[in-house]
Amino acid sequence: MGETSAFFSLTLIAAVLASACILWPRAISRAQGMARTFYVGSAVMSFAALLWILLGSFGILPQGTESPWLLRILIYRGWTVIGTGLSSTLMIVMALAVGTKSPINKSACSFITSPFVLKGLCLSVSVAFICTEIGKVAHDTEMRQFFLQSGYAVWFLYFIIVTETLAATCLLFARTLLAAAFALTLIMIGAITTHLHNRDPFSDSLEALHLLILLACIVLIRLLGERALARPHEAKVAYCE
């Protein structure tokens, strides 16, 4: 199986498994505990990836034949973050669109509208961009050459590094979350478009696509989740019965 096929297959499997886990508990307290666990797990995997990138950049971490796969698992957070993000987003959309016919139970609603889910997604994406910037700085010569070959000026590379770093930091704050997510979304669309323009293998765009999907989930969960929470309690329960 190729890298692109593996990415989409694992993403789909992760979304299905996450949906099953979200719908399984019937107790709201258990669902809330799962949301907190998701946040902690996202943080642990994110900072493990950051530590790996830092040690690799300084040449401290030995690179064995298995390292690229282990690093890829950390980069994609074992597909648990994107699976949870996609399933939570789809459930919120379903709950608001279908109304009283929605099959989503109250405990699932408690999970998908939990602030810990959104915080876990934002933290994962924020650290992912920080890791990316470290990689760009560590491979400055290669990045300068890539930008020049793509038709960009060298100053644009450093503009992107600064912009992504600032936006990634702003993802962690409620007031600036949406603006940061929209800015990073535009940059990721630009990155994918650049790879397509250069006729690079689609696998070169997978990390950008992964972040783009998560950014879309963040925006939708933030906007639609607030709409769900803004409903009166009785209506909200009806939408999630």
Q: What labels would you give this structure?
A:
241 residues, mainly alpha
User: What gyration radius follows from the Cα positions, in whole Å?
Assistant: 19 Å
Order of secondary-structure elements: HHHHHHHHHHH
Strand percentage, roughly?
A: under 5%
Kindly state the mean pLDDT as a whole number? 89
Q: Which structural category do the helix and sheet elements fall into? A: mainly alpha
Distance between the termini: 40 Å
Strand count, sense and barrel status of the largest sheet are:
none
List the domain count as a whole number.
Answer: 1
Poorly predicted regions: 232-239
Description:
- This protein is mostly helical and 241 residues long.
- The protein has one domain.
- The protein has helices at 3-23, 28-57, 67-75, 80-98, 106-112, 115-138, 140-149, 154-170, 177-197, 206-230, 233-239.
- The longest helix has 30 residues, at 28-57.
- Residues 232-239 have low confidence and may be disordered.
Topology:
Elements: H1 3-23, H2 28-57, H3 67-75, H4 80-98, H5 106-112, H6 115-138, H7 140-149, H8 154-170, H9 177-197, H10 206-230, H11 233-239
Helix pairs in contact: 1-4, 2-5, 2-6, 4-6, 4-10, 6-8, 6-10, 8-9, 9-10
Question: What's a concise summary of this model?
Answer:
This protein has 241 residues and is mainly α. It has helices at residues 3-23, 28-57, 67-75, 80-98, 106-112, 115-138, 140-149, 154-170, 177-197, 206-230, 233-239.
